[in-house]
Amino acid sequence: MIRSLKLTDLPQILLIEEAVHISPWTESTFKTCLHSSCAGWVIELDRKIIAFLVASLHEDECHILNIGVAREHQRQGFGRELMLHALADLTVRRVKVVYLEVRRSNTRALSLYNQLNFKKIGERKAYYPAPEGAEDALIYAKLL
After folding, report:
1. Which residues pair with residue 40 across a beta bridge?
2. What are residue 41's DSSP bridge partners?
């Protein structure tokens, strides 16, 4: 079941975040987003959150800020399902363009974004913290 993200979901989301991201967001970062112009969705399976997406909305633009799928549920289509749901919701909200950044090394995410017709529009050098120092981000956009 996909539903809107709530503040009470944060404990479960933080467990996913810390398990799957090299440089995880803090609880404070999530709270700041949820108290501003952000939207979020989760996939719940047997009353347990297995995936989440957080996006910043401003007028007719959206920036996908964070997406995570619990390790034991990766490669099963949940990330794709969540992205498709978010894109449909954003279309209803009259968003015209969606942006996101992705680590250059994140080949699974890159494959998904390409399948969903996101287009690479730029790069940010040394954007993400990495064990070896920093990693470039690839910037993608999709017109809705």
Report:
1. 54
2. 4, 53
Q: How many CB atoms lie within 10 A of CB 29?
A: 14
Considering Cα of 122, then 125, then 130, then 131, what sign does the dihedral take?
positive
Contact in structure between 86 and 64 (CB atoms under 8 Å): yes
Return the CATH number of 2-143, one of 3.40.50.880, 2.40.400.10, 3.40.30.10, 3.40.630.30: 3.40.630.30
Q: How far is residue 110's CA from residue 36's CA, in Å, rounded to a whole number?
A: 28
pLDDT in tens, 80-102: 999 999 999 999 999 999 999 99
Residue 52 tokens, joined: 């989440």
This model's pTM is above 0.90: yes
Residue type, 134: A
- What would you report as the CA-atom Rg of the chain, rounded to the nearest whole angstrom? 14
- The residues carrying an active-site annotation are 101, 113
